[in-house]
């Protein structure tokens, strides 16, 4: 097999500005992923999983909202913006951010250009969603406990959510783009990956411009020490100790789906892939890897490992692949905001916000479907104009 590293010129049909993540791929594997997602006459499903973990309430651990109270509303506000757009009156206010604007705005812009059928599932949120959504568990389930407790969820809850995900995956009749919104989720991702034996030091990003690496490490170490995991823990055992509800459902989707899967995000999706791979026997693992493509933004992928300049996200995919004996594919959107007229969008270029709500994967899919970067940037500029105008109108 023709092994890597590949460059954009090696792959037919790679859109402008897109970047390949992972250095354990073959040209054939990556070409198959592209072919699955660029057919103009295809339709796709979008599943956005919203979930909550008390980990997000630790001071300084997440920038997905300025306070713990506002972070409890982030998932609802982002989902509502994705579904309804910047013009409609919305029930849930967007949480204040240090800079930039919610990536849900980017996701909404891309969604308008795509043949998608969006669905949203809400898991353990503090407040009931006021828009149509899937109910995968009872209304009193509540957020997962903080990672530091070492007992994030009851094992029974993990099992039920995993089975719910398997049902969703088995019902798919079209390729699925899977997205998430889980404040605090990069910390649960770090904990789960560590619990599964994947070396992640320096490879996990976050919503902050400068992710609080030391705080995340301490929280994860504390949780794993308290959990006292066995030497080779099952994925469900790791989830019960230090995971979140999104991860349980998403892993179930991955192992039962037979359609192509485009995973929108970074380390949180890498953790889900690791959970799914850990649950399968060795002979079935590469078949899963061949169905899965991780799609992210250029801003997240440009975060590098100090000293060697390699993409931290690309290296994380390689580490997960090496741990489970497979090759994993990742790709970034080529959309950048250097030329945007909106300061809040140009903030992305300075390391704020970066990714979320499937923004990278949706923008990538829009490019694969033939939409040009310049047009997508213009649409984002216009959508932000509308969002700002609607905010002014609501205050009047």
Jot down its keywords:
15 helices; Rossmann fold; alpha/beta; single chain; 10% strand; 396 residues
Question: How is this fold's topology laid out?
Answer:
Elements: E1 19-21, H1 27-37, E2 44-51, H2 68-84, H3 103-111, E3 116-123, E4 134-135, H4 155-170, E5 176-181, H5 185-195, H6 213-227, H7 235-242, H8 245-256, E6 261-264, H9 267-278, H10 282-291, E7 292-296, H11 298-301, H12 312-324, E8 329-332, H13 343-346, H14 359-368, H15 373-395
Parallel strand pairs: 2-3, 2-5, 3-4, 5-6, 6-7, 7-8
Antiparallel strand pairs: 1-8
Helix pairs in contact: 2-3, 3-14, 3-15, 4-7, 4-8, 5-6, 5-7, 5-9, 8-9, 9-10, 9-12
The low-pLDDT segments are: none
The fold-level CATH name is: Rossmann fold
Strand order of the largest sheet: 1-8-7-6-5-2-3-4
As an assembly, this protein is: single chain
Number of domains as seen in the coordinates: 1
Q: What is the overall number of helices?
A: 15
From the coordinates shown, what is the CATH architecture? 3-Layer(aba) Sandwich
Mean pLDDT: 91
**Helicity, as a percent range:** 40-55%
Order of helices and strands: EHEHHEEHEHHHHEHHEHHEHHH
- The secondary structure category is alpha/beta
End-to-end separation: 63 Å
Fraction of residues in β-strands: 5-15%
- Overall spatial form: globular
CATH class term:
Alpha Beta
CATH H-level homologous superfamily name = Nicotinate-nucleotide-dimethylbenzimidazole phosphoribosyltransferase (CobT), large domain
Number of strands: 8
The main pleated sheet reads as:
8 strands, mixed
């Amino acid at each position: 097999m023709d092994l890597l590293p590949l460059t954009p010129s090696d792959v037919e049909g790679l859109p402008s500005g897109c970047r390949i993540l992972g250095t354990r791929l073959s040209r054939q594997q990556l070409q198959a992923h592209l072919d699955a997602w660029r057919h103009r006459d295809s339709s796709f499903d979008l599943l956005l999983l919203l979930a909550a973990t008390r980990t997000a309430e630790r001071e300084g651990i997440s920038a997905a909202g300025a306070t713990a109270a506002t972070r409890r509303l982030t998932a609802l506000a982002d989902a509502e913006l994705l579904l309804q757009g910047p013009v409609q009156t919305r029930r849930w206010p967007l949480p204040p951010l240090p800079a930039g604007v919610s990536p849900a705005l980017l996701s909404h812009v891309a969604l308008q250009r795509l043949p998608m059928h969006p669905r949203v599932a809400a898991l353990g949120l503090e407040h009931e969603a006021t828009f149509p959504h899937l109910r995968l568990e009872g209304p009193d389930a509540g957020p997962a406990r903080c990672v530091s407790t070492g007992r994030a969820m009851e094992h029974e809850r993990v099992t039920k959510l995993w089975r719910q995900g398997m049902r969703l995956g088995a019902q798919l009749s079209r390729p699925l783009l899977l997205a998430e919104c889980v404040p605090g989720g990069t910390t649960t991702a770090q904990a789960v990956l560590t619990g599964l034996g994947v070396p992640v030091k320096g490879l996990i990003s976050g919503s902050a411009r400068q992710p609080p690496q030391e705080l995340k490490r301490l929280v994860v170490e504390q949780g794993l020490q308290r959990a006292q995991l066995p030497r080779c823990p099952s994925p469900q055992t790791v989830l019960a100790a230090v995971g979140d509800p999104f991860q349980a459902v998403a892993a179930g989707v991955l192992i039962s789906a037979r359609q192509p899967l485009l995973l929108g995000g970074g380390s949180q999706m890498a953790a889900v892939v690791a959970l799914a791979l850990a649950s399968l026997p060795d002979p079935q693992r590469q078949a899963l890897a061949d169905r899965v493509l991780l799609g992210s933004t250029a801003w997240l992928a440009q975060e590098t490992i100090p000293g060697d300049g390699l993409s931290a996200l690309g290296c994380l995919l390689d580490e997960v692949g090496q741990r489970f004996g497979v090759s994993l594919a990742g790709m970034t959107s080529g959309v950048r905001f250097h030329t945007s007229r909106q300061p809040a969008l140009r903030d992305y270029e300075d390391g704020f916000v970066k990714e979320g709500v499937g923004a990278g994967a949706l923008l990538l899919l829009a490019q694969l479907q033939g939409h040009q970067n310049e047009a997508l940037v213009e649409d984002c500029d216009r959508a932000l104009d509308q969002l700002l105008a609607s905010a002014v109108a609501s205050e009047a």
